[in-house]
Each structure stands twice: as C-alpha cells, then as structure tokens.
C-alpha cells in the first residue's frame, strides 16, 4: 500500500543535474529521513515522488503502482512544507477543510460540483456537511488543535501553524506523508517538542513518512532509517545507529555526529599511523597503505596518568568548551588535533588550556573508512 520505491531517478534541470540516479526503498509505515546539505537534491526527490516534477529517467512506485504517469493529485501523497503554506484569510478549520472540500466536491460527494476554485475561495466554505466537519475535527484533534478550530491562522504560533499544515495533509488520509524541512522555521526548543509530536502521530497512524532535513540530530532522533544524500546521490542508507557506528564514507561520518577524521597509513593491518603523528591499534583489518580513520570524540577516554596499555597517547589541551551535559577538549597530540568529548558529572577532573593529559583510544573505536 504505502511503500515507496524509487529506481534510478534522474532529474536534470536544463544544465543542472539535480538527481543522478537515486534509489530508495521505503517500507510501509516507515519513518524515513532524507538527510543532506543544502542543494543536494532532497526537495527535488520529494517533488518527483509527489508528482510536481517531470522526471528525466527512472521509476517511482507507490505501493505496487508505478506512478510515473500518474498526476500529482492522484498519487495520494500529503505534503507539509517548511513555509506552512496556509491560507491567511481562512481560520484553522477552513484551512484543513479546504482541500478536502475541493476534492470531495469534484468527486461529487457533496452534491453540485463547484465550477471554479476562485469562487469557492472567495465565498469561504459556509456551513460544512456533517461528515466533512467530523473528518476535519478528527484531524485537528490528532494534532491537538481542535480547541482552536475557529481561530485565524495569523493568530497562531509557528508551531501551531505547522500543526495546522500537518492536519491539512492528514485529513486527506494519504498513503504517504511527505515533509520537507517542516521544523526549520521554529526555534530550537519548539523544534524538539515538534519532533516528538510528529513522531508520535506518525506512529499512532502508522503512515509511511518521508521527512527531509539538513539537521542530522533531527534525522537521528526521529527516523527508522536515514538516507544520506550528497550532490544528487544517495551515499548511504541505514538505521541511525548503523549510520553513526559504521559510516561508509568520511562525508557521512562528518555529517552525522562530530568526528575526528584523519589521513592514516595502515602499517601492518592492525596498526595505523595517524596524520604521521601517532600510532594506534585498531580492531578493523584492512590492507596496508593509505586509509581514512574515524574516531568519535565520545569514544576517547581521558586518563590522568600514563598507562602502559595500548593506544594511550599524551596530549596538551588547546581549548576546553563546556556544553552543559558535555565537555569538549581540543587536544594537540604532536601536530594532530584530537577532539574529545566527555560527559560532565560532578566531581570529574576538568582540564584547562595548557594542561597535559593522556588519552586512551579503545581499539574498537578506531574505525577505518
Ligand atoms: P535541497 O532541497 O537538498 O536543498 P534541491 O532539491 O532544492 O536541494 O536542489 C538540488 C539542485 O537542483 C540544486 O543545485 C538546485 O539549485 C537545483 N534546482 C532545484 N530546483 C531547480 C529548478 N527549478 N531549476 C533549476 N535548478 C534547480
Ligand atoms: Mg530543500
């Protein structure tokens, strides 16, 4: 029903190759994030799935149906945009009722067909039929805005407006919900609340959802699976934990979470010389030669005294930054910089610029990319 399959999707805008062969397999009921920097092709992918763009090459399936030649309004996709796109002169109820009314009028559900959208828009909606009223109120209840049904959308907060936009998409009972950076216009605190709201609603309804964001934390905290995009291509498709623990490329490693990424030389399969500065052992096995190495900052332990165990190196703190729950140290080891993050707990030693310390990098935290 609501699965989405994209095969070899290419989209060329005159001389801009926006998508260069995108493959996606989104399962029914899945919350799927498309993550990538600005300009990598996220919106274009969504617009192709929704049917707002002619595609250059490839196939798109919603459920079992190939929808390449199906018009946007017949694809059964609900869309929510960053810019809400609400009708400013309608109240909350009317905004949600509008598309449903138009669709149902055209399907003949409410008697006489209305000839022009313009007329409907200018007349407002009048008293809605009971069934339509109930559907709209149910959608508003889902987003917890039923008590504000009569309120003009101009008198709502950003978060409330975005919930109206969500209700407006959901009231159509789409097979697939497409959300393009829906939280980008909200302040950080509200964004965090809305993440939970959206995820909870998605799970309750069980609707297949594709969620576009450039914010890795948002993708990691909300999605069942994530596709990381770069320059019109999917670089990796994985669960949040796989993506974090086993990034396939330096780009993914750097984009998802903070990282120490180094040029390295593999000396004998299990020993790696980093930036020509220090040698560590790794669990990973690879051929000798050049490689990229990833060490997550929170995987490094700080020792107060030297220890004879493997993978202990000495360094000097060049910067210490306090982030509430975490402390971050930039540590110079020879000429390489190693970023270390430690959870802050009362009583732990705190280091300042200029302090010497020892770092223990567990072998399993030295990842070869
Ligand atoms: P994202 O949503 O990831 O920021 P987009 O999908 O909007 O990226 O854009 C991908 C690429 O396609 C960009 O290089 C952008 O400039 C280009 N692009 C998008 N829409 C158009 C258009 N209508 N005409 C020409 N180029 C476009
Ligand atoms: Mg975009």
UniProtKB/TrEMBL annotation:
Keyword ATP-binding carried by entry: yes
Keyword annotations from UniProtKB, A to Z: ATP-binding, Nucleotide-binding, Transport
Transmembrane segments: none
InterPro entries in alphabetical order: AAA+_ATPase, ABC_SmlMolc_Importer, ABC_transporter-like_ATP-bd, ABC_transporter-like_CS, Mo/tungstate-bd_C_term_dom, P-loop_NTPase, Transp-assoc_OB_typ2
Keyword Manganese included in the entry's annotation: no
Occurrences of domain ABC transporter (ranges): 4-256
UniProt superkingdom: Bacteria
Pfam families: ABC_tran, TOBE_2
Protein name (Swiss-Prot/TrEMBL): ABC-type Fe3+/spermidine/putrescine transport system ATPase subunit
Source organism (scientific name): Geomicrobium sediminis
């Amino acid at each position: 029903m609501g699965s989405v399959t994209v095969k070899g999707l290419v989209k060329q805008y005159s001389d801009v190759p926006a998508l260069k062969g995108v493959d996606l397999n989104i399962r029914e009921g899945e919350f799927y994030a498309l993550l990538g920097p600005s300009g990598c092709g996220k919106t274009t992918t969504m617009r192709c799935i929704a049917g707002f763009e002619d595609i250059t090459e490839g196939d798109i399936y919603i459920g079992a149906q190939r929808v390449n030649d199906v018009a946007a309004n017949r694809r059964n996709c609900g869309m929510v945009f960053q810019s809400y796109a609400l009708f400013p002169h309608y109240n909350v109820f009317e905004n949600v009722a509008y598309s449903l009314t138009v669709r149902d009028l055209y399907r003949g559900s409410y008697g006489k067909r209305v000839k022009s959208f313009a007329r409907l828009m200018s007349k407002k909606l009048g008293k809605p039929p009971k069934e339509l009223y109930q559907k709209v109120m149910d959608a508003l209840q889902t987003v917890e805005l039923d008590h504000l049904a009569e309120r003009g959308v101009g008198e709502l907060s950003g978060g409330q407006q975005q919930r109206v936009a969500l209700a407006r998409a959901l009231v159509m009972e789409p097979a697939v919900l497409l959300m393009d950076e829906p939280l980008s216009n909200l302040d950080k605190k509200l964004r965090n609340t809305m993440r939970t709201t959206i995820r909870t609603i998605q799970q309750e309804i069980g609707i297949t959802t594709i969620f576009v964001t450039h914010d890795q934390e948002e993708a990691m905290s909300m999605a069942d699976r994530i596709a990381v995009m770069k320059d019109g291509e999917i670089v990796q498709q994985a669960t949040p934990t796989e993506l974090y623990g086993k990034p396939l490329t330096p780009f993914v490693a750097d984009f998802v979470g903070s990282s120490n990424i180094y040029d390295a030389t593999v000396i004998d399969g299990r020993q790696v010389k980093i930036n020509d500065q220090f040698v560590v052992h790794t669990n990973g096995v690879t051929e000798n030669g050049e490689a990229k190495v990833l060490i997550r900052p929170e995987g490094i332990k700080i020792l107060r005294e030297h220890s004879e165990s493997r993978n202990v190196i000495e360094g000097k703190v060049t910067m210490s930054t306090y982030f509430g729950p975490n402390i971050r140290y930039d540590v110079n080891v020879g000429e390489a910089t190693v970023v270390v993050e430690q959870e802050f707990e009362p009583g732990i030693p705190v280091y300042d610029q200029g302090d010497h310390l020892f770092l223990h990098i567990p072998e399993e935290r030295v990842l070869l990319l």
